[in-house]
Write a structure and sequence with these properties.
With 593 residues, the protein is of the alpha/beta class. The protein has 21 helices and 12 strands. It folds into 3 domains: 151 residues, Rossmann fold; 80 residues; 244 residues, no CATH class.
């Protein structure tokens, strides 16, 4: 590694990849990621701001040329390269992209790009390319360094295309571009739909709709490939595939993609954290409306205040994890520190969210808001913080790469399944800590006009609405303490709140809670006994009720019903026998007259 510092600006549309790359690079000595952006406009704006501070604050731009498939995004990326070279002619650009098409790489080189590495390149090779480019050279991995080599690849591509009839060349190239653009758009949409299908707490109707959309996208992808790829091209690809499978695999042919498919990625704990937190940041852009039937303290806040609070908690949690790494705590110490970590997270969030020196005038008193809200930490700790489940497992996963044990299943650290489970635990942690931040506010300053104007939802701003909201929360705590929590303990499960596209939803996961069950007493213990009695007696009781019901129906229909029927028929026959003689008597009288 050279002693010359590398000061980078990362431009990539994928926030997860962007964050992971940043974490990986910052672990290397003498590399500083000055800023990360997702759009060309943001890149130009950040460079302009940094240039005013220090023209040498950034000495390399690493960018993804669009999304790798969309022609429009590729054109915008090339335009960004031209603008960068116009405004900052001495600023080198390294293309780090999924793009492999020679003609696009040639356009990028002509636009001023100094180097290229395909995504999947090892960090060691990427750093070597960065050093070469910053030193004034060029680095084109696989396609190598000169215009001649890239032009040679273009010539080879044209030579392959020349096998087609001359009249079909323009249409073939246009069809190829349509295919790339269409497949790229379908794949991006398909990924988004698939990700939504894996979100917990999704209603059944939404799952059905998303599953239908996924089937439609897969069908569209197949149809697009059939229409825009000629039979000769399909046959050529099949032959290439057969030939490649018959070859002896070498070390150079084992791509990173194959390795990632056969085993979980070997990420550092910080990279695991970066990926997880980046995904959580993306989900915080969803609606934060509470779609459950459980009242939450943060429901009284406006949506932007909810989002601001959850962002702050995530930021404070990241700082805490870094401090724990610096302190070099062991996994055995983590269990004892869990309560302290959560309490410190709650206190630091209140301090920053409401302002350390913020004051409020109540009558003749001038009080400090933060000091008032931090007066009774024991209540919040007992009612909310200590009841947040699986916090120790989440910290062990993020700090020591310990496999997650969730739903009676072990998920290897770094796997996509472990990431999904960790997301659920993290989202629940954020929401519950946010509830803990709002709880003392509702107890002490619920009906203060300044607080209502700055934080509350407009629908919950009147005194009556606030008191009704507080009563709902009070009943929730009573129900949880005496009934719900005992029921969940008996059923060996936890109820968690998650961030879903439609809002804050809830889900439940299995967890062994035998120790908690043995410690129950009072009303919660009675609740579990009632549940156990109900489970034991319910089948027999149902059988007994079914038997009694059948007997009751038999008595009503066969005995009482038939008896009533016979009595009714006798009455009708009696009425008929009385009426008939009267008619005969009238007839005889008429004859005598």
């Amino acid at each position: 590694m050279s002693d010359r510092p590398l000061k980078l600006l990362l431009v990539d549309q994928d926030p997860i990849f962007q964050l992971g790359l940043r974490v990986a690079l910052e672990e290397i000595h003498n590399i500083q990621v000055v800023s990360t952006v997702e759009t060309d406009t943001a890149a130009l704006q950040v460079l302009a701001e940094l240039a005013q501070q220090d023209p040498n604050l950034v000495n390399l731009v690493i960018l993804e040329l669009g999304n790798g498939r969309s022609l429009d995004s590729q054109q915008q990326g090339l335009q960004l390269c031209r603008q960068l070279k116009t405004q900052y002619p001495n600023l080198p650009i390294l293309l780090f992209s999924f793009i492999r098409e020679p003609e696009i790489l040639l356009l990028a080189k002509s636009a001023g790009v100094n180097g290229y590495c395909p995504k999947g390149t090892s960090i060691t090779q990427l750093v070597a390319a960065m050093e070469e480019v910053v030193a004034g050279g060029s680095y084109w991995l696989n396609e190598r360094v000169t215009d001649r080599s890239i032009s040679k690849l273009v010539a080879e591509e044209n030579q392959n295309s020349s096998r087609l009839p001359v009249s079909s060349l323009p249409f073939a190239r246009l069809r190829h571009n349509w295919h790339l653009s269409g497949i790229g758009y379908i794949d991006a949409t398909l990924k988004a739909v698939t990700d939504q299908l894996h979100i917990p707490g999704l209603p059944l109707i939404d799952k059905a709709v998303l599953a239908g959309q996924r089937r439609e996208l897969l069908a569209a992808r197949w149809l697009l490939s059939r229409l825009l790829i000629s039979p000769q091209e399909r046959q050529q690809k099949q032959q290439q595939f057969i030939f490649s499978t018959q070859q002896e695999p070498t070390i150079s042919s084992l791509s990173s993609t194959i390795v990632w498919q056969t085993s979980p990625p070997l990420l550092s704990p910080r990279a695991l954290q970066a990926t997880l937190f980046s995904s959580c940041v993306t989900k915080l852009q969803f609606s934060l409306q509470n779609v459950t039937n459980v009242a939450l303290e943060i429901d009284i806040f406006r949506e932007e205040k909810k989002r601001e609070l959850l962002y702050l908690i995530l930021q404070k949690l990241a700082q805490q994890l870094d401090e724990l790494r610096i302190a070099e705590i062991t996994i055995n110490q983590l269990g004892d520190l869990k309560s302290t970590i959560l309490l410190d997270l709650w206190q630091s969030t209140i301090t920053d969210f409401f302002g350390k020196f913020s004051r409020l005038q109540l009558g003749k008193q001038n009080i400090e808001i933060v000091n008032l809200l931090l007066q009774n930490p024991g209540v919040v700790q007992a009612e909310i913080l200590n009841k947040i489940p699986l916090v120790g497992e989440l910290f062990a996963y993020l700090l020591f790469q310990i496999d997650l044990q969730i739903d009676n299943t072990s998920y290897p650290a770094g796997s996509s399944e472990a990431k999904s489970q960790a997301e659920i635990i993290l989202e629940n942690l954020l929401i519950q800590v946010a509830n803990g931040v709002v709880q003392p506010l509702l107890n002490s300053l619920a009906d203060v006009e300044v607080i209502k104007q700055n934080f509350y939802d407009r629908k919950l701003i009147s005194t009556r609405d606030i008191e009704r909201f507080r009563n709902d929360l009070s009943w929730k705590y009573r129900l949880n303490n005496y009934v719900k929590e005992a029921q969940r303990t008996f059923e060996s499960r936890y109820e968690l709140f998650v961030l879903a596209p439609r809002g804050i939803a809830n889900t439940s996961i299995y967890a062994p809670r035998g120790q908690e069950l043995a410690q129950l007493s009072g009303i919660p213990l009675v609740v579990t006994l009632v549940l156990e009695f109900r489970d034991a007696i319910a089948p027999r009781l149902r059988s007994l009720l079914s038997f009694l019901g059948s007997g009751f129906v038999f008595i009503l229909t066969q005995i009482i019903g038939r008896g009533l029927g016979l009595i009714g028929r006798g009455i009708l026959q009696g009425i008929g026998s009385v009426s008939f003689p009267e008619k005969n008597f009238k007839r005889n009288s008429d004859r005598q007259k």
